[in-house]
Specification:
Elements lengths: L1 H8 L3 E4 L13 E2 L1 H10 L2 E13 L2 E11 L13 H7 L16 E5 L14 E5 H7 L4 H4 L12 H8 L25
Parallel strand pairs: 1-4
Antiparallel strand pairs: 1-2, 3-4, 5-6
């Protein structure tokens, strides 16, 4: 029974807005198979594509949806939320001091102008930093330690974050999602 449940867990549904664009690229807008099935019964989504996988009850059988589109359009936010994740996405998981790439759990964020020196926690003063560089810089100003961010910190636009998110596709991409996701990969010549 555990094997059947785990294989169902590998059947998320890609969620598209009513205009057939993903709600988000990073993290990719996915719903569990259970949430997708509930939305189908609530009639709040349209099934666009299906897996070959079938779920059954004593009186019902259906293929699991692989792509669903909301029936009601959800307007996108006008500006991205200021979160640790979005700072890492803006900086593309690169330490802004040593220019090396890191995994999320290996990064911290750094106040370019330290809080102890009047720096604020804003888009314009926060950068992604590896632990080593963050420790080395400490509570000093960039000019005092000769450590300047590779890119000047600034508030990103939603479009910029979506573009950056497309460079980091998730580990699992079902083939039925291809027409709706545009990752930075070359298209095959037909």
């Amino acid at each position: 029974m555990t094997h059947a449940i785990s294989s169902l867990e590998r059947c998320p549904a890609l969620v598209l807005n009513a205009d057939y664009r993903p709600l988000s690229y990073y993290p990719l807008s996915l719903w569990s198979w259970q949430d997708a099935v509930r939305a189908i019964f609530r009639e709040s989504v349209t099934v666009v594509s299906e897996y070959d996988r079938v779920v059954r009850s004593p009186r019902f059988e259906m293929k699991l949806p692989s792509v669903i589109a909301l029936k009601d359009y959800i307007p996108m936010a006008s500006s991205p939320a200021f979160t640790r994740f979005n700072v890492f996405l803006r900086d593309q998981w690169m330490c802004q001091y040593c220019a090396e790439d890191f995994k999320t759990h290996e990064l911290t964020f750094d106040h370019v102008v330290p809080r102890s020196r009047g720096g604020r926690t804003t888009w314009e003063n926060i950068v992604a930093a590896c632990r080593g560089c963050n420790t080395q810089k400490g509570n000093r100003l960039p000019r005092e330690v000769g450590m300047y961010p590779v890119t000047e910190p600034r508030r990103p636009g939603l479009h910029e974050l979506q573009q950056h998110g497309r460079k980091f596709p998730p580990n699992f991409l079902h083939q039925s999602w291809g027409d709706f996701l545009y990752w930075d990969t070359e298209l095959e010549d037909a």
